[in-house]
């Protein structure tokens, strides 16, 4: 193993704490390591043999000190990390195969602080954590872990995961107290050693003394005045330029640059909530008085300091209470949206950032390699559907050719976008200061004066009449979110979110008004569809399902529910199939023309950890992150329930389909359950036929069914479909 490979590995994972065991402890190597990682505090110790030695490197922003009591022990380093209640001990240990484990030293370490983490190459094998043959050291460690004298509960994080390249043994162990346990870890590919590197993500929070957080401040009032001042210039320029797309690109660039010019960044130790000026003045007075007291030690300053402290606490309490009362008074009894908007912040779950991809049983951490892998994966997922020359595909090709000829020979007249449409679309945006990929933020759009909105309105109507839009509106920045709670996932466990230009989203919202009006006027969507429809919500579907299941059980009958999952639902929408369905629905030609322009020529690139992949084309699917994508999806599948029988209760929420089955109460108990299984199999076969026709694959691995009953230990039948066993969930 070369030192350069170690440097490359540590740089790629960006870990704040690094533990190396079996380092040989060469002074020149440790000096080179310390000089390369100047942002790390390096601690090292010698070994008892030529292969021994331990090195621990901790980021300088983390408070750390070496426990002097154990500083002269070979193959062992004990560090105290953090301060106050956050403090814990880290023990890095290398135990040669022929030497006993330092269990007595471990006991002494735990007497100092029970919040202690032990990690390193212990060469201890036991059936409780390793798949290999047990050895004496493993039995000793097992006895120590579960001995009566050991009054602390330690857990092994990386059980049954091989860390040796020579065998399937788990000899590099991470032992943590049970209350500090976090199972988020991964074994990395070997870099030349006979051990695999292990990366662990603990659920610890440590204060930092060196980190400075960036705080952005934009002079919004000055920006608003400057926009008002330049209104006449942009109106004149818009009337003089013949190319509306070129003009609007200049206008977008202007808004982006003026916002960047009036934004300044400074660094702070922490983010603090805003306080009124009188409270800030009181706090400054207290700080000044504290300096005087420390300098002169006069009793007068102690009295003033105590008085100011009590005053500040009282004023803070009154300020918080008044703020809460003002917020409660702003609520409308007939409209609870503001309340739930504030309440949902306490229930939202933040997904961890993606740190690596699992590819062919190896973990990829380098951003460039991650971008390349993600691009290849999603380029294949968004590639053209395979043409199997079925009757529906032949019809789709004919319909596509007919629509193309009609639009080329007679361009339809598009409906006008009004000032009210622009104003309503902008007001519906979240008030975010973060800029989109075009450099324009939602907050800038909300500050635009009426004159600038007229400029946007004129440009949008020109785009709508010519069915042309700026080319960069068709390019999406794709970021990936994990579907699990782990930061290391397979590419199948990622969800692509398309970040689009802000003006592109405004244009979509204006068109969506006309699309929704046509859909609602024609009554196209079934009543069972509750997703992305004003006036419909998921709560109604849930209450309806519970009521239907309760009705079945009240008649002493069994009931079953089938939950169907579509594979990469929004990414698989077939454009040619959409044209067929819109033609069958007699969709106005201007809507079809707009959609063909919106969906054609789209491309995307993946960005991970600041690294951007090359662009790739999107031949199917709708962008996740756009307001029109989900509406197109539910419109495309408006007839999915027609493929099912009407004797079942059906529920749709966007791409989530659930069906409730209720048999006749005249059947026997065993007959009811068998009939339910037959009905579920029949429905699945119908859905598979539909999904094959319209190229919307069903993910049978994530399709489940549940049986509701009042019987004692009934026999649950097995349901299979296309070679997959549909998993039964008890709850």
Can you walk me through this structure?
- Residues 462-726 form the Reverse transcriptase domain.
- It comes from Rotaria socialis.
- One of its GO terms (molecular function) is catalytic activity.
- It holds the Pfam family Exo_endo_phos_2.
- There is one protein chain.
- The chain has 731 residues and is α+β, with helices and mostly antiparallel strands.
- Among the domains are: 3-200, Endonuclease/exonuclease/phosphatase (Deoxyribonuclease I, Chain A); 282-348, no CATH class.
- It is 40% helix and 18% strand.
- It is built from 21 helices and 27 strands.
- The strands form seven sheets. It has a six-stranded mixed sheet, with no helix packed on it. Strands 23-24-19-25-27-26 form a six-stranded mixed sheet, sandwiched between helices.
- Helix 8 packs antiparallel against helix 9, helix 12 (391-409) crosses helix 18 and helix 13 (419-427) crosses helix 16 (502-522).
- The longest helix has 31 residues, at 299-329.
- The radius of gyration is 32 Å and the shape is globular.
- The model has no long low-confidence stretch (mean pLDDT 88).
CATH homologous superfamily of the domain at 3-200?
Endonuclease/exonuclease/phosphatase
Distance between the termini: 51 Å
Structural class: alpha+beta
Strand arrangement in the largest pleated sheet: 4-5-6-7-9-8
Q: How many extended strands?
A: 27
Total helical segments: 21
Over the alpha carbons, how many angstroms does the gyration radius reach? 32 Å
- Mean pLDDT across all amino acids: 88
Largest sheet: 6 strands, mixed
Model regions low in confidence, pLDDT < 50 over at least 5 residues: none
Approximately how much beta-strand content do the residues carry? 15-25%
Looking at the overall shape, the CATH architecture of the domain at 3-200 is 4-Layer Sandwich
Q: Looking at the structure, what is the overall shape?
A: globular
Helix share of residues?
40-55%
Specify the oligomeric state. Answer: single chain
């Amino acid at each position: 193993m070369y030192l350069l490979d170690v440097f490359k590995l540590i740089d790629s994972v960006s870990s704040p704490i690094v533990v190396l065991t079996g380092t040989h402890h060469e002074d020149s190597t440790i000096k080179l390591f310390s000089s390369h990682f100047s942002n790390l505090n390096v601690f090292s110790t010698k070994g008892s043999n030529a292969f021994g030695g331990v090195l621990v490197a901790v980021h300088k922003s983390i408070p750390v000190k070496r426990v002097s009591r154990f500083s002269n022990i070979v193959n062992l380093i004990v560090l105290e990390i953090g301060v106050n209640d956050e403090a814990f001990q880290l023990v890095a240990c290398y135990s040669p195969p022929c030497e006993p484990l330092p269990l007595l030293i471990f006991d002494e370490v735990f007497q100092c602080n029970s919040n202690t983490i032990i990690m390193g190459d212990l060469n201890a094998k036991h059936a409780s954590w390793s798949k290999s043959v047990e050895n004496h050291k493993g039995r000793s460690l097992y006895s120590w872990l579960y001995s009566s004298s050991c009054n602390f509960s330690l857990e092994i994080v990386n059980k049954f995961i091989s860390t040796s390249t020579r065998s399937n043994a788990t000899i590099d162990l991470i032992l943590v107290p049970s209350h500090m346990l976090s199972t988020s870890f991964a074994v990395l590919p070997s870099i030349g050693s006979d051990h695999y590197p292990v990366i662990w993500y603990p659920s610890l929070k440590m204060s930092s003394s060196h980190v400075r957080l960036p705080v952005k401040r934009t002079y919004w009032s000055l920006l608003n005045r400057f926009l008002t001042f330049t209104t006449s210039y942009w109106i004149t320029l818009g009337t003089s330029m013949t190319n509306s797309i070129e003009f609007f690109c200049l206008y977008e660039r202007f808004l982006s640059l003026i916002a960047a010019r009036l934004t300044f960044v400074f660094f702070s130790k922490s983010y603090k909530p805003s306080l009124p000026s009188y409270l800030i003045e009181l706090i400054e007075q207290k700080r000044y008085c504290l300096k005087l007291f420390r300098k002169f030690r006069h009793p007068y300053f102690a009295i003033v300091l105590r008085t100011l402290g009590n005053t500040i606490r009282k004023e803070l309490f009154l300020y918080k209470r008044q703020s809460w009362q003002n917020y409660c008074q702003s609520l409308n009894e007939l409209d609870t949206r503001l309340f739930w908007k504030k309440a949902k912040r306490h229930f939202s779950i933040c997904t961890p950032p993606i740190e690596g991809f699992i590819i062919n049983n190896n973990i990829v951490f380098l951003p460039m390699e991650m971008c390349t892998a993600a691009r290849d994966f999603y380029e294949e997922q968004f590639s053209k559907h395979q043409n199997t020359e079925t009757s529906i595909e032949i019809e789709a090709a004919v319909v596509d050719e007919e629509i193309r000829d009609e639009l080329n020979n007679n361009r339809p007249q598009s409906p006008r976008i009004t000032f009210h449409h622009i104003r309503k679309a902008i007001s519906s945006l979240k008030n975010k200061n973060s800029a989109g990929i075009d450099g324009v933020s939602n907050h800038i759009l909300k500050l635009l004066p009426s004159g600038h909105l007229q400029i946007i309105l004129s440009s949008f109507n020109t785009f709508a009449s010519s069915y042309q839009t700026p080319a960069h509106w068709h390019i999406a920045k794709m970021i990936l979110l994990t579907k699990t709670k782990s930061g290391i996932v397979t590419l199948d466990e990622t969800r692509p979110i398309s970040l689009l230009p802000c003006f592109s989203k405004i244009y979509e919202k204006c068109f969506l008004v006309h699309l929704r009006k046509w859909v609602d006027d024609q009554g196209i969507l079934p009543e069972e569809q509750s997703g992305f429809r004003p006036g419909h919500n998921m709560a109604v579907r849930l209450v309806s399902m519970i009521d239907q299941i309760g009705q079945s059980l009240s008649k002493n009958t069994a009931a079953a529910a089938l939950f169907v999952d579509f594979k990469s639902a929004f990414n698989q929408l077939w454009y040619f199939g959409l044209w067929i369905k819109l033609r069958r629905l007699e969709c106005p030609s201007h809507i079809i023309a707009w959609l063909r322009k919106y969906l054609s020529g789209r491309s995307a690139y993946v960005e991970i950890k600041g690294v951007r992949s090359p662009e790739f084309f999107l031949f199917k699917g709708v962008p996740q992150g756009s307001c029109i994508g989900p509406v197109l999806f539910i419109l495309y599948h408006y007839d999915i329930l027609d493929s099912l029988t009407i004797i079942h209760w059906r529920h749709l929420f966007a791409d989530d389909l659930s069906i409730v089955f209720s048999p006749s109460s005249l059947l026997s108990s065993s007959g009811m359950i068998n009939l339910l299984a037959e009905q579920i199999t029949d429905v699945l076969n119908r859905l598979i036929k539909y999904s094959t026709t319209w190229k919307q694959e069903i993910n049978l691995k994530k399709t489940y069914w549940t049986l509701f009953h009042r019987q004692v230990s009934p026999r649950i039948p097995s349901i299979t479909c296309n070679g997959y066993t549909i998993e039964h969930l008890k709850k």
